[in-house]
Design brief:
The protein has 197 residues and is an alpha+beta fold. The chain is built from 7 helices and 7 strands. 31% of the residues are buried.
Length: 197
């Protein structure tokens, strides 16, 4: 059974739970900084804003994460000092710059009824078990929002794009990238779902 809980309900260990699922789901994206999952988790543990994260528990085990913000608040707040402590001066400084740029954009023209769904990740051993579907469905039922936005999904993340389309999201923006040769990504796609209330 999949249960979705606010990260705050996990107590003092909530930040580590989020970080470990984040590293499991997105670790290859950060291989330049380290290929050691424990080091990545130690370096990133300071970043999650607990108030906006939700955790999917599958039979009581942390299986997935997602953040839901008002489109203006950040879900991850990278700080240079802890990143430099774990990655060293050069890589830590680069990590601070890159991660700050990546996670501080916000949603243009967000209204009081706009939700930004961010950092959707499933732990590798739970992929294919409906975790992402359960957590997104949970977020779509939050009563304070009418419009939901997913910003900058890579065009090579076909499983995520298929899931979002199945749930009713439609593409509204496509931005070309300059790192296609290195990453294989051609565009970042933004999607939107508007619900009648």
């Amino acid at each position: 059974m999949i249960e979705i809980v606010a990260a705050r309900k996990l107590g003092a260990g909530g930040r580590r739970v989020i970080t470990e699922v984040f590293v499991d789901a997105f670790g290859p994206d950060f291989a330049y900084f380290s290929e050691d999952p424990r080091l990545l988790a130690d370096a990133f543990e300071h970043m999650p804003v607990l108030d906006v994260f939700h955790v999917a528990l599958l039979d009581g085990e942390p299986a997935g994460i997602a953040a839901c913000t008002d489109g203006r608040q950040q879900s991850l707040v990278p700080r240079g000092k802890p990143l430099r402590r774990h990655f060293g001066l050069v890589k830590g400084t680069i990590a601070a710059v890159v991660l700050t740029r990546e996670f501080s954009g916000g949603v243009p023209d967000a209204t009081d009824e706009t939700a930004s769904i961010e950092v959707v990740g499933t732990a590798s051993r739970f992929k294919g078990k409906g975790v992402a579907t359960a957590i997104i469905t949970h977020l779509l039922a939050l009563p304070q929002y009418r419009e939901y936005v997913l910003e900058a999904v890579s065009d090579i993340n076909t499983p995520a794009l298929n899931l979002y389309e199945k749930l009713g999201f439609v593409e509204y923006k496509r931005v070309p990238v300059s790192h296609t040769k290195r990453t294989g990504i051609n565009h970042y796609i933004s999607l939107k779902l508007t619900q009648d209330r």
